[in-house]
UniProtKB/TrEMBL annotation:
This is 1-acyl-sn-glycerol-3-phosphate acyltransferase. Pfam families: Acyltransferase. It comes from the Bacteria. SMART domains: PlsC. GO terms for molecular function: 1-acylglycerol-3-phosphate O-acyltransferase activity. GO terms for biological process: phosphatidic acid biosynthetic process. Keywords: Acyltransferase, Lipid biosynthesis, Lipid metabolism, Transferase. The keyword Lipid biosynthesis applies. PANTHER family: 1-ACYL-SN-GLYCEROL-3-PHOSPHATE ACYLTRANSFERASE, 1-ACYL-SN-GLYCEROL-3-PHOSPHATE ACYLTRANSFERASE-RELATED. InterPro entries: Plipid/glycerol_acylTrfase (IPR002123). Pathway: Lipid metabolism. The lineage of its organism: Bacteria, Pseudomonadati, Pseudomonadota, Betaproteobacteria, Burkholderiales.
Length: 236
């Protein structure tokens, strides 16, 4: 917290990313979470829009522990004790559900960040989903990658227990509160988080809905889930 308040305003992107990587690893260590890159993972791109499935509040810190990104996340995360504050200081952009003004402003900011060479990430499901499922993707923010003419790289996130199955305490869904989720993970068995980066796709000249569908199909395959037809949310 001291680093964020006193050092971040004066240092560059690489230095900030080193701090973000270090504190993300420290936070995960407290929760007995280890992070690994899947052996069959594609090489993570330094400059791209990363799109991932969304399982838990841990997701941002799991990705940042290896490859710090500027995230887009729902506004509720900002109110979470410590985790929300750290996510904000790490550069996370928060969006309010149903706010067209928020979407327009964030869209412009994402294009600028991508054009500046940053790695940007978001969760196109728009909310968390139980492991073993993948909700339809929202296509709107994929337009930022199209405008910035950058690569889109899908990412499959999973959390395993000692036996290699879905970890029973990580899912953050339904009426579960942040405090309840924190206690469940702290009291539960060790967590093994796995990142599987998938082959990137060029957004230049593409349509956002085509990109979103291709990303949905890729993440489905990366998670070992059968892709369902029409993996997109209706657009207004």
């Amino acid at each position: 917290m001291t680093v964020c308040a006193t050092i971040f305003p004066w240092i560059g992107l690489e230095a900030r990313n080193r701090h973000i990587r270090r504190w993300s690893r420290s936070l995960l260590a407290i929760f007995n979470v280890t992070v690994e890159l899947a052996p069959d993972s594609a090489p993570p791109l330094e400059h791209a829009m990363i799109v991932a499935n969304h399982v838990s509040w841990l997701d941002i810190f799991v990705v940042d522990a290896l490859y710090p990104c500027r995230f887009v996340a729902k506004a509720e995360i900002r109110s979470w004790p410590l985790a929300g504050w750290l996510a904000e200081k790490a550069g996370t952009v928060f969006i309010s559900r149903g706010s067209k003004r928020d979407l327009r402003n964030i869209f412009k900011g994402l294009v600028h960040s991508l054009q500046a060479g940053e790695r940007v990430a978001f969760f196109p499901e728009g909310t968390t989903a139980p492991q073993g499922t993948l909700l339809p993707f929202h296509a709107n923010l994929f337009e930022a990658a199209v405008d910035a003419k950058v690569m889109v790289q899908p990412l499959a996130l999973s959390y395993a227990d000692a036996a290699g199955g879905h970890h029973p305490d990580v899912d953050f869904i339904g009426e579960t509160t942040f405090a309840e989720s924190v206690l469940a993970i702290l009291r539960g068995p060790p967590v093994r988080a796995r990142l599987r980066f998938l082959p990137a796709m060029d957004a230049t000249g593409a349509h956002r809905r085509d990109l979103a569908q291709a990303a949905h199909d890729a993440v489905s395959a990366g998670l070992g889930i059968a892709a369902e037809p029409g993996g997109l949310r209706a657009q207004r």
